[in-house]
Specification:
The chain is mainly beta. The protein has two helices and 22 strands. The protein has three domains: 97 residues, Immunoglobulin-like (Sandwich), CATH 2.60.40; 80 residues, Sandwich (Immunoglobulin-like); 97 residues, S-adenosyl-L-methionine-dependent methyltransferases (Single Sheet). The two termini are 77 Å apart.
Length: 311
């Protein structure tokens, strides 16, 4: 024990100094970290010699640990009194440790991941707090930076037009600490309806060593569908043929043509504001022609995978 502290202890024993005055003398133990967080282990280390015991639970009795150092953690934020006793009650040194609250972590998910206009979107909080609990959750669903549109772990929102919109969540823990999370949700125009029924195309023919003989093909489509048939390569009877279906029926086109390998026949069946049908047949030498079936989006010439097909 340092000489200064020994003098103070002697003066206290003689009644010259009060125990409080001794407690206010230079600290006889340190702790680390100096600004601990909840649930973080704090280590207390004596800076003097002697028989060291510790009061770690604030009950005034140095009976929680013994030795030159001791450790504990704290579940909740606040001020905690820690005492070190030297040689029984010969010297008591007290320090107040301020334990800091852990700020919550705000986060959320939303579904569906790619919403359409006028489709209900559900937002779900996935927020956490290491020293919990989270006592309040509120949502900004209209992008005005005010969290007054909904409360609770889940909420719903509908977007009336396409675009990218901010949605934010604010959470508050029991100590009043807040955290926020934001996501930008992209909303798309709803997909147009497909032709119903979706047109079907069927070919009949036989293989040849140099290509194939196509005798006829049949197209079934609802009324008012515009059909364009384009043919390129050896054996094509025409370059482009167009017609509009008058009623729901199967239309049969007789060909009886020999097509050389490399010839391509494309069929486009479309109707305004509807998803149409695209078929491409490429004649190959001595093997079955290669066929591709795709969809045609309104106003887009390039065929794409149909919405119901896997990507």
């Amino acid at each position: 024990m340092g000489s200064t502290k020994l003098i103070l202890v002697a003066l206290a024993a003689a009644g010259v100094l009060s125990p409080a005055a001794v407690a206010q003398a230079p600290e006889l133990f340190t702790y680390s970290p100096e600004a601990p967080l909840t649930n973080e282990v704090v280590t207390f280390t004596a800076q003097t010699s002697g028989t060291i015991t510790w009061d770690l639970d604030g009950d005034g009795a140095c009976d929680d640990a013994a030795g030159p150092s001791a450790s504990r953690s704290f579940d909740t934020a606040g001020d905690y009194d820690i005492r070190m006793c030297v040689n029984g009650d010969e010297l008591i040194n007290k320090r107040t440790v301020t334990v800091l609250n852990r700020v919550p972590v705000a986060s959320f998910s939303y579904a569906p991941a790619a919403p359409m206009v006028d489709e209900a979107v559900t937002v779900t909080s996935t927020s956490t707090d290491a020293d919990g609990p989270i006592v309040a959750q509120s949502w900004d669903l209209d992008g005005d930076n005010v969290f007054d549109d909904a409360g609770g772990a889940t909420a719903g929102v509908v977007f009336a037009q396409p675009g990218t919109f901010p949605v934010a969540l604010q959470v508050v823990d029991r100590d009043g600490a807040t955290a926020q999370a934001i996501a930008w949700i992209t909303v798309a125009e709803p997909l147009p309806e497909p032709l119903s029924p979706l047109p079907t195309v069927r070919f009949e023919g036989s293989l040849r060593r140099s290509g194939a003989i196509l005798r006829l093909f049949m197209i079934s489509a609802p009324q008012g569908v515009q059909v364009a048939i384009r043919c390129r390569g050896g054996g094509c009877p025409y370059g482009l043929k167009r017609f509009t279906t008058r009623r729901d029926r199967t239309r049969v086109h007789s060909l009886e043509r020999r097509f050389r390998a490399g010839a391509v026949i494309e069929i486009r069946a479309t109707k305004q504001d509807r998803i149409g049908k695209y078929v491409r047949l490429r004649v190959r030498r001595g093997i079955r022609p290669a066929r591709v079936d795709r969809c045609l989006m309104p106003g887009v010439r390039r065929p794409v995978r149909c919405p119901s097909e896997p990507s």
